[in-house]
Amino acid sequence: MRVLVTGATGWIGSATVDELLDAGHDVIGLARSDASAAALDEKGVKVLRGDLDDLDSLRSGAAETDGVVHLANKHDWADPAETKRSERAAIGALADALLGTDRPLVVAAPLSGIVEGRPVRETDASPAVGPDSARGGSENLALEYAGRGVRTVIARFAPSVHGVGDWGFVSFLAAAARKHGVSAYVGDGTARWSAVARADAARLIRLGLEQAPARSRLHVVDEEAISTRTIAEALGRALDLPVTSVAPGDADEHFGFVGGFFRTTMTASNELTRAMLPWTPTGAGLVEDIDAGAYGRA
């Protein structure tokens, strides 16, 4: 297949590009900078210059392909309205280019905000609908195209996609620990996160692109529930720092933007995902990665 990947040089996207290339696919990578373009060119990836606001570039790139993996997002925590707008516009442009083709469109989505009090299941619909909802209602917008000849596949990611070089949530927790001299959790530390190793996540994205039927929701999750206190204790061991609790009201000041996530339970089952696709995670667990020094050592 000839596959367009947005976010192709990101933490998850770069691993996905490698996975697709190793499986024999041709890849086109969206690149907004010279450095990103050079990194893709070095891998033998065709470069599509542009960004999420360049809708004409997205449409033309998608039209040339046999499928699209959409992983890019502005993640502008200071301007969430702009993040919602750009995400919704990008998905519309990519999906419009695939109308009536039955080609796959794999769209990244979060687990947060779907249900409370239990792990999210693949059968749980996102309540975010419309441009003013979380992430601009991108998951439901993408699924609308499944009835219009697009094989839409939603990939819901664990809050920790971990490994050496991670610049996601756990890396921000490690940075906060170094800054304050303590590895902290919020409240009693009983909030829980799901997690998955980066290479396992990339492999599931490829399988979803190749095999998942339209309207599938895949849970990119290996470990279902790790307490935030357990994560903080592992970072404390790795960085040789004391471990302490931070009051919920102080979490944003201590951790920055990630504080709101770290006090929130974000867990999911992957039972239906594993039943649908031949995916068995083989990577290290999150605590194992932390203990091995993936997020630094003292």
Give structural notes.
This protein is an alpha/beta fold. It has two domains: 2-157, 3-Layer(aba) Sandwich (Rossmann fold), CATH 3.40.50.720; 160-195 and 224-267 and 283-291, UDP-galactose 4-epimerase, domain 1 (Alpha-Beta Complex), CATH 3.90.25. 39% of the residues lie in helices and 21% in strands. The strands form three sheets. The protein has a seven-stranded parallel sheet, with helices on both faces. Helix 3 (55-63) packs parallel to helix 4 (80-98). The longest helix is centred in the first third of the chain and has 19 residues, at 80-98. It is globular and about 55 Å long.
Task: Provide a short characterization of the protein structure.
The protein has twelve helices and twelve strands. By secondary structure, it is α/β, with parallel strands linked by helices.
